[in-house]
Amino acid sequence: MAVEVLEPFLKGDTGRNTRGLLRLIILCTIAAAAVASRLFSVILDPWFNFRATKYLVQNGFYSFWDWFDDREASHPVAQLVYEPRKPAEEPKRTRTWHPLGRVTGGTLYPGLMVTSGIIYHVLRFLSMPVDIRNICVLLAPGFSGLTAFASYLITSEMTTSPSAGLLAAIFMGITPGYISRSVAGSYDNEAIAIFLLVFTFFLWIKSVKNGSAMWGALTALFYGYMVSAWGGYVFITNLLPLHTFVLICMGRYSPRLYVSYSTWFALGTLASMQVPFVGFLPIRSSDHMSALGVFGLLQLVAFVEFIRQQVPNKQFQTLLRGLIFVVFVVSMGVLVLLTVSGVIAPWSGRFYSLWDTGYAKIHIPIIASVSEHQPTAWPAFFFDLNLMIWLFPAGVYMCFQQLKDEHVFVVIYAVLASYFAGVMVRLMLTLTPVVCIAAALAISSILDTYLVAENPIPKETQANGQATSDSIKSAADVIKDSLRSTRNPVLGIYSYVSKASVVGAVTTYLLLFVLHCTWVTSNAYSSPSVVLASKLPDGSQHIIDDYREAYYWLRQNTPDKAKIMSWWDYGYQIGGMADRPTLVDNNTWNNTHIATVGKAMSSREEVSYPILRQHDVDYVLVVFGGLLGYSGDDINKFLWMVRISEGIWPDEINERNYFTARGEYRVDDEATPTMRNSLMYKMSYYNYNALFPAGQAQDRVRGSKLPAEGPQLSTLEEAFTSENWIIRIYKVKDLDNVGRDHGSAVAFDKGNKKKKTAKRRGARVLRVE
Amino acid sequence: QTAQTVLFDLWQRYLNTTPQRVKLIDVFMAFLVVVGGLQFVYCVLVGNYPFNAFLAGFGATVGQFVLTASLRIQTNPENKREFGSVSHERAFADFVLGSLILHFFCVNFIN
Predict the structure, then answer these.
(1) Are A571 and A650 within one domain?
(2) Is A464 left (phi over 0), alpha (psi -120 to 50) or beta?
(3) Whether B39 contacts B58, CB under 8 Å
């Protein structure tokens, strides 16, 4: 890897020495720029990953691997000591997914946590004790420097141009499409996954070019690392076979391809199965079948090639060709049969929704509810990739012109990734590396043409010096001066004006690119989701810190075992910052449980109170942005709760009931009774009227006037409301002491005595007991 | 009839032209095929209850077969042109590296 960089130093050539030194300095500067541009704001975000890492560092690797998420501070040593069980005292103490719990070791990709754990221990070994939180915060910027280096390597494999790799590195270092997922503190799987993606591709290109089993084995190792880090490894699993398949179909089978692909597949599949979350999926799931199929095909092709060299008979060769075709078709048929009969699991919903774009919206609302899973708009491409988006097709076109094995790879990668990025905003991330590579190829060829190409040597000196005796040339020499058109054409740009103007234009564009990237990064992608920043009229910054205020209230004022119910978006944050058990969280593995929460939120109080009781809920947390105009609140997410729970209980929840007769979603006077009686509506607007003069309550997100009389709550009581009313926490009341239902208890407390005291005997029922 | 003679010719050619070392590799590959086949038959007959154990054993034979085939291809003098950067000794070292990784994963996976 570093050989290319270091090579010039080892050979004693001064010019190349200088160039190598320059290259090293440029790469270091790029890495520094990549790290620096991610430090606009530093706040740790994905809380679950951080919590898991903390657990790993505190309790060691083995207990992390078998971690059933119950208690944060559980010490395995204490469990080994024999203690008589007291089941009455200790009910199930699950921290997440309250009644169910979560087998964390088997349901996460451990690569991220293990990486930061290793860095932590290495630094400790070097006697630089750094807090694990700082490592988690700075992991993504650090790895983005490595990503820049990896894209330098892979682009250098594509072309002989000296500048392409460096251009790709700087593009990859500062492009907003990648920064959006790797700012300091975004401690997410993508933080290391993109580096692994690009580096795996580099190793694959290298192994296909050299046909060396070592590079193939390295590809497999890094592929295994990638599998342990991110669910997007399926992209690699399908891209490498597709590359191989296309090469075979182009008639470019070579022994090199056999060596690299078989080594990668055999080792990589075994490596990927070591991750507990993946398990037997590479054998059982349809997502992985293309790799298996191409592996079989490659064996057949290699065998036939081997036989073909031995047999001179032409007919036999065609027979063999037929044989391979038949075998391939038959095994494809068997594969399809196995899929249909259910031995091999069909496409997983998340993956399938990439092909059938309407599928998720109808069948799995929980996938469609995430804003990152929506189709990408055009401006987003330009916003994230700026000038690269129009250099990208040019770069792909230039790959077609050369079309060696590695260029085929870039073309396939470009086509597939652009499709995926068009379907889903989130997959812009996998598109970014290939866009950087292609754009760097395009720009570097422009620069090579206009900057590096030397002036053509005048013909006379050339002919004298080199004495080349071409027949054409001699023929041209005869009538050299007579006709303009018969002179040897002089290729190359050698007027300084044209050189300077083109190079100047390109330089301007590149500088504008840097400006754009910095602007986008500082303005759009560096806003932490926990702390909201707003500008006061005089331009000064005002920080709205309601989330942490509320979470710390929970942490300090509630019993340790209090269960918090909220919508799943806030599950990890509550678990991490408030340190209280939650019912659902961002790992959406159990759709029914989420739908239960959705049903409790969207039903009448009488319906949701039993649900809350059954799940031991103590506090309910809602996010309300009506006072501040914070649009990402729970009323705006409310329809997704309705949709998700309607998928499970279609006869109890009906989305239509939440719309007015004209099909509008309103919260004001015209809101439907179902809407106004839903728990979510009541919790959001409870006591909200009191803030305003009578009859003037205003919701600033929906921009509507609220009804004069606010909702009444009978089964919950308000426990806490943050400064700007963003987070509201309610305590679930206990059962009534005298056994009344809550509605009548509240009515009694208010003194609403029934006016008619006349003894009206209702239809009495017999007491059963 | 023709197919039979063609196959017989093939066998004769193979016996005559293949060097001793390559024949050794081929015997090893045949052995791996037999072992893998036996495991598969056993799995079909008895059932795949410790599925990871079956996968580890079967994967080991398949992987080793593929690695050996790669070694055979790389050291074949006819493919000299393709593998400019890989000498025979380098190919063997790669083979050893690949096998070590393979066996590490298999032993880990068999539990």
Answers:
(1) yes
(2) alpha
(3) yes
- Total structural domains within chain A: 3
Contacts of A137 (CB under 8 A, 6+ apart): A42, A43, A44, A184, A185, A187
3-state SS, residue A452: helix
Question: Do A741 and A723 belong together in one domain?
Answer: no
B51 touches A: beta carbon within 8 Å: yes
Is residue A605 domain-resident? Answer: yes
Query: Which pLDDT band holds residue A8 (cuts at 50, 70, 90)?
Result: very low
Among the three residues A376, A392, A418, which one is the final residue of a domain in this structure? A376
Mean pLDDT throughout B42-47? 92
Are A582 and A615 found together in one domain? yes
Maximum mean pLDDT: which of A65-69, A351-355, A472-476, B97-101:
B97-101
Give domain status of residue A625, yes or no: yes
| CATH number, residue A716 | 3.40.50.12610
Provide the pLDDT confidence category of residue A393 given band limits of 50, 70 and 90. very high
**pTM of the predicted model over 0.90:** no
* Residue A704 sits in the same domain as residue A555: yes
Is residue A170 within 8 Å of A33, Cβ to Cβ? yes
Nearest CA in chain A to B86: A212
Residue A694 burial (CB count, 10 A)? 8
Residues A671 and A753 in one domain: no
Do residue A262 and residue B70 have CB atoms under 8 angstroms apart?
yes
pLDDT tens digits along B55-105: 999 999 999 999 999 999 998 888 888 888 888 999 999 999 999 999 999
| Residue of chain A whose alpha carbon sits nearest to that of B64 | A266
- Judge if A689 and A744 occupy the same domain: no
Contact yes or no for A217 and B98 at CB 8 A: yes
A183 within some domain: no
Number of H helices, E strands in chain A: 34, 8
Determine the pLDDT at residue A543.
82
**Model confidence at A708, in pLDDT bands (50, 70, 90)?**
confident
Same domain, A752 and A702: no
Do A669 and A627 sit in the same domain of this protein? yes
Which positions in chain B touch A270 (Cβ < 8 Å)? Answer: 56, 59, 63, 102, 105-106, 109
**Residue A243 domain flag:** no
What pLDDT shows up at residue A51? 87
pLDDT > 70: what percent of chain B?
99
Three-class DSSP category at A505: helix
Q: pLDDT for A594-649, tens place per residue?
A: 999 999 999 998 899 999 999 889 999 999 988 888 888 888 889 889 988 988 88
Q: Which two tokens stand for residue B54?
A: 């079956």
Place of tokens 């470009």: A414
Q: Using an 8 Å CB-CB cutoff, list chain B residues near A263.
A: 66-67, 70, 98
Please enumerate in sequence order all residues whose Cβ is within 8 A of that of A8, keeping only pairs 6 or more positions apart, or say none: A16, A17, A19, A20, A21, A23
What whole-number distance in Å separates Cα of residue A291 and Cα of residue A297? 10
Domain that holds residue A745: 735-769
**Residue A755 class from Cβ within 10 Å (0-12 exposed, 13-18 middle, 19+ buried)?**
exposed
